[in-house]
Amino acid sequence: MASLSSMTRLFRAKAFDRVLPLLDHPVIDAQAGGQSSESSGAIRRAAIRAVVSMNQKRRSCFSELTGLINRNEDVSAAAAGLRILPRASWPNAQAGAAAAGLVAWARTIPATDRTGEDYVEGDTTGGRFGRLSSC
Fold first, then answer.
1. For the whole model, what pTM was predicted?
2. pLDDT for 60-113, tens place per residue?
3. For residues 56 and 20, what is the distance between their CA atoms, to the nearest angstrom?
4. What are the residues whose beta carbons fall under 8 Å from the beta carbon of 26, sequence distance 6 or more?
5. Cα–Cα dist 69/49, whole Å
6. How far apart are CA 111 and CA 109, in angstroms?
7. CB 80, CB 125: distance < 8 Å
């Protein structure tokens, strides 16, 4: 009989493979006439929190979150997700792309809005990339 920890790992792996695609394509309910971008954003943010908590395929997760940042989609949530991933799992080549994406995003935020929670999340994550490159 399989141990509880091996069953848990198997369950998380199966769930991860179902949740990860929601980062790029949140589920749209065609019968309800589609979802608003607000609903899609809520689904994506929940999927981000879920995938980073599963401890599965961290490099794939990093890559997907970097893609969101570079497409300027849910940047704050993606940046918060990156902060949860262990730094050792950050692929160096993609870390540079994520940092560049965060800098580009930060430049679009008016100075008067740079104290809001969304900006602070992105800026804090960008700071981690700066420390990474100085090591």
1. 0.72
2. 899 999 999 999 888 989 999 998 998 888 888 888 888 889 888 888 877 777
3. 10
4. 35, 39, 40, 41, 43, 44, 47
5. 15
6. 6
7. yes
